[in-house]
Write a structure and sequence with these properties.
single chain, alpha/beta, Rossmann fold, 7 helices, 29% helix, globular
């Protein structure tokens, strides 16, 4: 039975329910690690087994901000589920016209110049290859779904990693775009570094939740509001769910 682990965040707090069908069942469990406990929702889908983690560990009272996420705990938890594939669902700000808010694209590379290192190996030098950080076969499966359902399938996207929790300034966006980035987020960089150490295939579905600072067409001074970003991201749950279903079918 295919097994896929999904790490999601902004706008995706109810994502596990989107994956459920009339014949599926779900339950909650707690994974333990050296870096803390991680809540996981396990969904037994008609096509396979899904494991969903909210990277922010959100509840009714709090939501871990991006700069405080313990990514090692999250990635260790999903890897302990022995998945065939890990899918990161990332909310991003778009710098390009072909990726307007409300559209889902596929990451092909990361521009992560943040200072903090992320690794499972602090006592011995383990150098994981990241020449192709995302699996091409599974990315192409998602590309076909997006082309059919969305009418467009933004691919080859370079995701810039910023720390947050503040949104970026227009000058920072200008610099990141000059370096080759197309979209910007606050979580994929550390996540992918750690997944690369597991050897498990990885795909990132990037959800354009807002225009990056200074990039709103006709309104370069438009402010970015997190509540609006969260609301926009939530509208893409069904599209992401369609990609996950297609991935289950492909692994089958």
């Amino acid at each position: 039975m295919p097994r896929i682990a999904v790490i999601c965040g902004t706008g995706m707090s109810a994502f596990s329910s989107t994956l459920e069908t009339t014949t599926s069942t779900s339950n909650s469990m707690l994974a333990e690690s050296n870096w803390g406990e991680v809540p996981i929702t396990s969904v037994t889908h008609e096509l396979g087994q899904l494991f969903v983690i909210d990277r922010h560990h959100s509840n009714d009272e709090s939501r871990t901000p991006p700069h405080a996420i313990e990514h090692r705990a999250n990635v260790h938890a999903v890897s302990s589920c022995k998945p065939d594939l890990i899918v990161s669902v990332n909310s991003v700000g778009s710098m390009i016209e072909s990726m307007p808010p409300g559209s889902v694209g596929i990451a092909s590379d990361i521009l992560d110049l943040s200072i903090k290192p992320w690794t499972f190996h602090d006592d011995d030098a383990i150098h994981a290859d990241r020449t192709r950080p995302f699996d091409q076969r599974y990315s192409s499966v998602c590309e076909a779904v997006l082309r059919e359902r969305q009418g467009t399938s933004p691919t080859g996207l370079v995701v810039a990693q910023c720390v947050g929790p503040q949104f970026e300034s227009p000058s920072e966006i200008d610099a990141l775009q000059r370096l080759g980035a197309h979209v910007v987020g606050m979580t994929l960089g550390p996540e992918q570094r750690l997944v690369s150490e597991t050897g498990i295939a990885h795909v990132s579905l990037v959800c354009s939740s807002n225009w990056a600072a200074g990039r709103t067409p006709g309104k370069p001074d438009a402010e970015i509001n997190h509540e609006a970003v969260d609301a926009m991201a939530s509208q893409m749950r069904a599209m992401v769910s369609s990609c996950i279903t297609a991935l289950l079918e492909d692994i089958n």
